[in-house]
Amino acid sequence: MARPQNESTMIPYGKHHIDEEDIKAVAGVLRSGVLTGGPAVDAFEQAVAQYVGAKYAIALSSATAALHLASMVAGVGPGKTLITSPITFVASANAGLYVGGDVAFADIDPLTVNMSPVALKNVLEKQSNIKAIIPVHFAGLPCDMPSIKSLADACGALVIEDAAHALGATYPDGNRVGCCSHSSMTVFSFHPVKAIAAGEGGMITTNDESIYRKLLRLRSHGINKLDDAFMEVSMSQTNGHPNPWYYEMQELGFHYRITDIQCALALSQFKKLEAFINRRREIVERYDLLFSNLQYCRPAQTSGRAESGHHLYVLRIDFEKIGKNRKQLMEALRKRDIGSQVHYIPVPAHPYYRMLGFLPEEFPNSQKYYQEALSIPVFYDLTEQQQNHVISAIKELVG
Ligand SMILES: Cc1ncc(COP(=O)(O)O)c(C=O)c1O
């Protein structure tokens, strides 16, 4: 039964959950007098590193900033290539362009929506000078990391996991995404629709101390950090004693720092991560069950349900068969107060990438996926009643 459209009753496709503890945590920072570069940043980094099982974590202003720095560290640049999946947010690919490098795409596996190792192998056979491979754990489902890592090793590229969707997800071996057992770096996002919200924010985890030290410098203008040796020793001392004001910019870095205000919120949210993911999993299992016998509509991912971070719930719909195009279906859902979205337009199909010479039709699995995909609501606060409403609307409109 259609309900009148009303923003306050609108069910979005994704939404963060904020409680009084989060508000208190942020207020605590505001009262503390330290707004940035303080203890909340360190505490959040330590908490995530420990949770995912990585030696180091570095918090940044966004996952986009994190991907930029990670691709720099991997050595992407003029004449060097980064490979990622076509079905991702543009930031995963843009990371290569920011540093003047080339970007290539390896098509998805239609069953997982993740980068296909077979497609990756084919791309690697045609490309040289690959410095970084960025698999994207789409919707929180971990990629086939052992296969991707062995292909990367064979061509001397670093693996950077784009885990913007996958905080809290586990690999089939039970390790957590972010432990970097099959990569050099893993990138997370704390944008509000993600597993936990910082407002904006990102993080890189790594087990490599030299990568960690370089990232620390690049996060803050390329200025020396920790016990980095000074390059201009004479400027650093007076009569053999350290000059208290002295610091050095040793390479060209950025201002990609995150504030204590954001990290206090993220840390408070992080304490609820398991609850957030468990609820998302419940919602997903219910959708899976109740959509299992629809003729022209199926979940885009079915494997790894116990392991995924469940950032998105994507349906694949045969729009021709249901007699409605995607726009009509989205409008019909919207009239029933249900938000939906498309994740994602294949990156090579964007005008900027077409201008660079990419042809979306070269990635047929991604193209077909894009024609059929629609994300429907999944978030912690989605009530059973709201989910029932979504399920009956989908059954009515698509079934
Ligand atoms: C797969 C993926 N990578 C990277 C990003 C960029 O994250 P941020 O908004 O934190 O820069 C996003 C954001 O939506 C994403 O979905």
Number of strands: 12
Summarize the amount of helix as a percent range: 25-40%
Q: Name the overall outline.
A: globular
Q: Helix and strand succession? A: HHEHEHEHEHEEEHHEEHHEEHHHHEH
Bound molecules: pyridoxal-5'-phosphate
Strand order of the largest sheet: 1-7-6-5-4-2-3
Q: What is the number of helical segments per DSSP (H or I, 4+ residues)?
A: 15
Q: Tell me the fraction of residues in β-strands, as a range.
A: 5-15%
Radius of gyration: 22 Å
What does this structure look like?
The protein is of the alpha/beta class. 39% of the residues lie in helices and 12% in strands. The chain has 15 helices and twelve strands. The protein has helices at 20-32, 39-52, 63-74, 91-98, 117-126, 145-155, 209-219, 233-236, 260-270, 273-290, 319-322, 326-335, 351-355, 364-372, 384-398, and strands spanning 56-60, 81-84, 102-105, 130-134, 158-162, 185-189, 202-206, 237-238, 241-242, 297-299, 313-317, 373-376. A seven-stranded mixed β-sheet has the order 1-7-6-5-4-2-3, sandwiched between helices. A three-stranded antiparallel β-sheet has the order 10-11-12. Strand 8 and strand 9 (241-242) form a beta hairpin. Helix 1 packs antiparallel against helix 9 (260-270) and helix 2 (39-52) runs parallel beside helix 9 (260-270). The longest helix is centred in the last third of the chain and has 18 residues, at 273-290. The radius of gyration is 22 Å and the shape is globular. The model is unreliable at 1-5 (pLDDT under 50). Pyridoxal-5'-phosphate binds next to helix 3 and helix 4.
